[in-house]
Amino acid sequence: MKDTRQWQVDPQQATTEAVAEAVVPAAAILRQGGLVAFPTETVYGVGANALDAQAVQAIFAAKGRPADNPLIVHIADWAALTPLITGLPPLAKRLAECFWPGPLTLILPASPLVPAEVTAGLPTVAVRWPAHPVAEALIRAAGVPVAAPSANRSGKPSPTDAVHVLEDLGGRIDGIVDGGPCAVGVESTVLDVTVDPPAILRPGGITADMLRPLLPGGRLQGEGVSEQERAGEPVGDPVGEAPRAPGMKYTHYAPSADVFLLPGPWEAQVALLRRTIAAPPAGGTLGLLISEETLRELGDLLVRPESAEGVLYRSGHLIVGIVGRRGQLTTVAKKLFRALRAFDHTDAAMIVAETYPAEGIGAALMNRLCKSAGGRVWPAGNPAYNVRR
């Protein structure tokens, strides 16, 4: 059991110099081969020196992460990119110049300097430059590229606040830099530029519509949410092979309670919820993960107390999570993981989640929802609402 140290820095209030000073102890731990969690604009990551194979192995042990799941290497200046790759294709350079720092990860040809523990033995490496002052200051102070997956136990919802990291990895890592809540709330887009046309391996904060104008002929693979993803199946790689990017092969983003997705257009989802609330299934407390619009439509059934705080509240025999408006999916994406984690502090036995158009940031949102549900659709296996346990 490690003594997990914590440092708090408010990037909104502190000066650049104050942020740089605050991360010095954490940077020293990274240089010495330790593990430090830190905020990015997407989610919190748990980092190690990307060039230290033993340190990288410790990430997998702390998270309980499968060893064939590659890691993203984080940098904070252009000079740090060169040693990691064998070359920067012109298209990759154009994309990086447009979207870095930011929530775009590029799959590039890896140099021999990058340990196999980072790449899962693949000839490519995933690299991004995060757009967060604390992350940038930490990486620069460490003086090494930082390999960092999300800072949660493998399979659980990603952390968007330092308290989430402490819940999952307290005692397992050396330190946590608390920089407040994350702005985007879902992980970066992973784009493979070693194939033609480029392929989105994981949708995220940079959408297909944002990428397309920079691509030859606007050609792009992997848009939207595939039928495999909707069925909760791994995508993109044959059985037995390492996935090309994080988030492709294994169960992810799942709270303790089973998640079920509402099928069909929004009006049909509301009608199904109305029937479910009127005749709830046996087998434990039911959780609902819905939008503000759905709450208004069901206002006669779901009374929201004036004293309700946070993303969850109890309404009779239900626990209701509100994640924002359907017309503002960036807000829904930002609140999704926080809400899924909040359900773990309740007695919800199952969670029924509203679904959204897989367009723009909605593609990332639906990718995460489909993976958290693992292919389960509401109502659960008519007619008995059988819940897998």
TrEMBL record:
Protein's GO biological process: regulation of translational fidelity; tRNA processing
Question: What is this protein's name?
Answer: Threonylcarbamoyl-AMP synthase
What's the stated role of this polypeptide? Required for the formation of a threonylcarbamoyl group on adenosine at position 37 (t(6)A37) in tRNAs that read codons beginning with adenine.
NCBIfam families linked to this entry:
L-threonylcarbamoyladenylate synthase (TIGR00057)
Q: Which residues bind ATP?
A: 65, 69, 124, 150, 158, 202, 253
Reaction(s) catalyzed by this protein? L-threonine + hydrogencarbonate + ATP = L-threonylcarbamoyladenylate + diphosphate + H2O
Matches recorded under Pfam families = Sua5_C, Sua5_yciO_yrdC
Compartments annotated for it: namely:
Cytoplasm
- Domain called YrdC-like: residue spans: 20-206
Q: Which organism is it from?
A: Heliophilum fasciatum
The record's region (Disordered) falls at 219-244
Q: What is its EC number?
A: 2.7.7.87
Keywords, A to Z, come to: ATP-binding, Cytoplasm, Nucleotide-binding, Nucleotidyltransferase, Transferase, tRNA processing
Q: Which InterPro entries match?
A: DHBP_synth_RibB-like_a/b_dom (IPR017945), Sua5-like_dom (IPR006070), Sua5/YwlC_C (IPR038385), Sua5_C (IPR005145), T(6)A37_SUA5 (IPR010923), TC-AMP_synthase_SUA5 (IPR050156)
Q: What is its main location?
A: cytoplasm
Q: Choose one Gene Ontology CC annotation of this protein and give it.
A: cytoplasm
Q: Which GO terms describe its molecular function?
A: ATP binding; double-stranded RNA binding; L-threonylcarbamoyladenylate synthase; tRNA binding
Q: Which residues bind L-threonine?
A: 42, 74, 128, 148, 188
What broad class of enzyme is this? transferase
The family classification in the record reads: Belongs to the SUA5 family.
